[in-house]
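The step that takes the researchers longest sounds almost clerical: writing a folded protein down as plain text. The outcome of that step, for a single protein, is printed below.
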Amino acid sequence: MDILLQQIINGLVLGSMYALVALGYTMVYGIIGLINFAHGDVLMVGALTSWTIITQARDAMPGIPGWMLLVVAALIAMVVCATLNYTIEKLAYRPLRSSPRLAPLITAIGMSILLQTLAMIVWKPNPKSYPTMLSPEPFYLGGAVISTTQVAILGTTAVVLSLLMYIVNKTSLGRAMRATAENPKVAGLMGIRPDVVISATFIIGAMLAAIAGVMWASNYGTVQHSMGFMPGLKAFVAAVFGGIGNLAGAVVGGISLGLIESLGAGYLGALTGGFLGSQYSDIFAFIVLAFVLTLRPSGLMGERVADRA
């Protein structure tokens, strides 16, 4: 029972981070039909930016509270990532919007490699230790343990997801996003500027990725230039699992994938005496993807997308 509760906690924390990144994938895909494979590297840039801010500020202002420094670093990372994603969309994706789908897909892969290379040049290739900014004292739930950082991750995810759902469902920007997703040409005739809406979508997705990057670095305690590849890939699996193009599906897919991965790794390790354990956790994401594509290609909450004539 203790193992089950612990793995559920770990899975919810992991799934929360997957969900934030998966939302960026699914928002962009829902509007312009693009799989932005550079999205995981935006997470990496956010994590490394926050690491730079924290390490520099701690030396310059040693008395500043850790939680305040973490919030400031996260906000700056969000601005940097939003600017970066806006620039990528405008320079790399927008000129290819009317091209065959293979062209922007290859461009997205190229942007991923470019971002990793630039990050390696700027921050050097060696892994860096990410400081613990919140209280190290854990909380005990029965026989399970949850850290202050994990509590902050779960709470922040809940607030961010609620805010995003409000923006999409209750604001004029959200209505414009839904209209553009349905038919960009008709939306343009109704006074909506699709280019502005698409740029706003990339900016929101980048801010979510930056938050997830700070969470990932805080939870695992390390950052490096290649850290965004696997979370980005798994978040894409989560988006497909939940139904890519569906916001609620991205959240359900992310949390479900985190739970599957954590429970699978925990119990596989226990059943095999540690021979198979957390080091094999990555396989569960791709097993799930294979099953979903075979049995339900539209995902758990997928829906038919209208043709865009």
In short: The mean pLDDT is 87. The chain has eleven helices and four strands. Residues 13-227 form one domain. Residues 11 and 262 are 5 Å apart (CA to CA).
